[in-house]
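Please, structure for the following, as tokens.
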Amino acid sequence: MAGFKLRLRSLPFDTQVFSYHLDGDFFNRVEKTEVRSSSVDITLEVTRKTENTYVIQMACKGWLIIPCDRCLDDLTLDVDTDYRITVRHEGDELDDSRDGVLLVPEAWSELDMTELMRDTVLLTIPIVHCHADGECDPEMMAHLDEHWTDTEPDAEGPSDEVEDLSESDKSDDAIDPRWEALRKLKDNN
């Protein structure tokens, strides 16, 4: 995306400010995300420190609309985050293995900020995102209540066999016939 490229080599040795607006299409152009709509304003303050070193301070403010995990209705999340990174021209390969430092090849004259801006905003989405209690779609919640159960699922998964154990079978002295068969195999060896 050409509009999100910083021409690093042509920046003067002071601070430059760049502004961007990210809509819902921005988050789904490269790879499909759960963002249905958005309005996020990003301000980049880029300070050129040396011939090859730049400090980028990113401020992101706005909102995202994503589906609620519980009712699947639209959920609006506020975005208010900052991110700071130092960019240096060094070597022949891109290296983003260090926290807060991005090494870009010496030959690069510009840096595409698309992925960095996208990831910074998407990381503000919590792992579990649901409406506050009582704010979910009532129709969907009624459907969920029809299928809700208070019992814990079997840890081993569903079983084809249904066991009906009487009180005497549940005693500590009773041995599961499957264990008894395994014990016989062991004793025979």
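Residues 2-141 form one domain. The radius of gyration is 28 Å.
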